[in-house]
Amino acid sequence: MKKLIKTLKNIWSIEELRNKILFTLLLLFIYRVGTHVVLPGIDPTKLEQLGQSASGGILGLIDTFAGGAFSQASIFALGIMPYISASIFMQLMTVLVPQFQKMQKEGESGRKKINQWTRYLTVAVTMVQGSAYVAYLRQMTAQSGGIIEGYASYFWISTVVLLTAGTLFVMWLGEKITDKGLGNGTSLIIMVGILARLPQSFMQELANKSVRTGQILVFIIEIAILIAIIMGCIMLVQGVRKIPVNYAKQIVGNRQFGGARQFLPIKVNSAGVMPIIFAQAVLFLPTLFNLTGTATGHGIAAMFTDHSNVWYMVIYSVVVIGFTYLYTALIFNPKQIADNLKQNNGFIPGVKPGQPTVDYIGAVMDKITLPGAILLALIGILPGIAQLLGVTHGFSTFFGGTSLLIMVGVILDTLQQIETQLLMRQYDGLMKSGRIQGRQTVTQASY
């Protein structure tokens, strides 16, 4: 405890770090206030049906990323999701399109161009999603009369404009946090939205267990299991396979360079949270059969909406494993790594430079991707397993899935930055031994 108090004093005594923390908290507070500002023309007292319909599937994912703003018809209803979608698309373009690859290799100027294209694409995506959200609001509030009748003729244009402005403002907040605050702003905004639901979900679970005799012990066991799952998730995020690399000695003048033995860290889970997001988006598509009104459509929709369904979990696991391999193949380039080693006079002991090095790195990546994909799929279905064991729907989402992976990754990344600031000023780090390792950032949105 004394160590913790001393560390907190050291953090507060560094003026630059203190200002970054306060600036970050201020912008996050502004974001949370905005999530409670309801769109003009909506009666906030008649949004109960909207919240119930956004409790699962891709709508639940959007609502999670938006911090509950989606189900509250807020001006930040779409949150940062359009920016994430645009960032993912641009990242895939830098992998698949040679022109974007060339742009990315131009350095700072190339990154600025890509960021500018990402912003333009964000506006387009937000306008499309905003139009769809208006149709969704009208459908959900048709019976309850949630849209004020006198405002109905202006509702579409005003809502699309406000949602676009709201998303751009949230994107601006994220960029400001990244530039002048602490951590990745976009990731922090998503994490705060997820954590905002934790107190309510925790109290609902506690109340549910308190009404029955002997269930408090079950609740304590649930908390212990949750802590164990978080520890396992940390191991998955930080787990690496170290490939030894030697660098040839070079003598320049009277000085010797190289000759040191280092390691090439290969992440067990290089794809991050992206396979889970893609899998949830794909498995949401069968629910669109609801629009057909056929019995088969309702049956398919019921199976893929119920996350505790055994068939859903089996199919979901297979899709997550498949997307893990696909996304890892897109973002991980063994040939580029082998070329960089060759240019810097580095080599893997016992492996010839060139194509043999490419094959060796690729084989290692394939071997460690399988256990990483299986563990990722297991984390993805843990909320469904928790529901089967009697955990309430809201609290079960913190036992795994997108929410847990994002929270663990963002917290580790933020703690790593705080520790770096402490060590730069010759203070003790956050841990007695070892260093906190941040996650590998896949995109600016980090998912």
TrEMBL record:
A GO BP annotation: protein transport by the Sec complex
Residues in coiled coil: none
Main location per the UniProt record: membrane
Superkingdom field: Bacteria
Record membrane topology: Multi-pass membrane protein
A family per Pfam: SecY
Entry's localization field: Cell membrane; Membrane
Stretches that traverse the bilayer: 21-42, 75-97, 117-136, 151-173, 185-203, 215-237, 271-289, 309-332, 368-389, 395-415
Keywords for this protein: Cell membrane, Membrane, Protein transport, Translocation, Transmembrane, Transmembrane helix, Transport
Signal peptide start and end residues: none
Family statement: Belongs to the SecY/SEC61-alpha family.
Role of this protein: The central subunit of the protein translocation channel SecYEG. Consists of two halves formed by TMs 1-5 and 6-10. These two domains form a lateral gate at the front which open onto the bilayer between TMs 2 and 7, and are clamped together by SecE at the back. The channel is closed by both a pore ring composed of hydrophobic SecY resides and a short helix (helix 2A) on the extracellular side of the membrane which forms a plug. The plug probably moves laterally to allow the channel to open. The ring and the pore may move independently.
Name recorded for this polypeptide: Protein translocase subunit SecY
